[in-house]
Design goal:
One of its GO terms (cellular component) is cytosol. The chain is an alpha+beta fold. 31% of the residues lie in helices and 26% in strands.
Amino acid sequence: MRVLAFLDGTIADPETPLIRADDLGLLRGDGVFETILVVNREPRELGPHLDRLARSARLLQLPLPGRGEWETAVRAVIDHWPWDDEPELSLKLVCTRGVEGSDVPTAFALGNPVGADTRRKRTEGVSAITLERGYAPDLMERAPWLLLSAKTLSYAINMAAMREAEARGADEAIFTATDGSVLEGPTSNVVLARGRTLITTPPSSGILRGTTQGALFRAAEKAGWETKLERFPVEDLFTSDGVWLASSVRLISHVHTIDGTAVKFDPQLHQEIVDLYESNY
């Protein structure tokens, strides 16, 4: 089951061709996107996702349709989703630069079911490998044209990293910077715990600002936890009290193995972290 909507709320057949062969999103990956989890008709972190979509578009100097139009498309997908059969959906918002010279972007919202492998990672946790990303953590400030913190359609490297992880028998990858510090996963933010403190890499390191990580930290702070945005070395993954990958659809997946070595996992702490995140909703 899939539901496709345009920004005026029109529902279209997802099997019908939509993208022109000369669309710059197809030819060059010139576009932006967001993926939002919707549970029982309620989109999670819709505001932060739309904020991030707008920021990514600004970095690309991409004309983005108005926020109200995206909200209309989101509501159209939600209203046409078979909630009796599927209590969750993964909702993707996509905007490309369109056809060169037209100044008319291609934009749509597409709802998909949440897959079994995603549900497995939520409940069973994941194994991960560390992979070099090839840039320094201060590169974003020195070279903003590299779009390091934008969520663009150019996801070839991210998907290559996931295939490399699979080839090595792991579920996920964790990118590292040239100084040995931890960056992010190809489709997730890395969170670790030290006592009652949660830590994640700051967006200034060139990573994507996390919506799920942000929701977790917001709830943790209300519950009396300390939260920090700071750089940390790979070694800290092995000495922390717990490591998680936070993403919009996989939610808060605990990491039980990194580079073939088991890392600390406390089921009670993990449940507390999950409950903190869920308390937002």
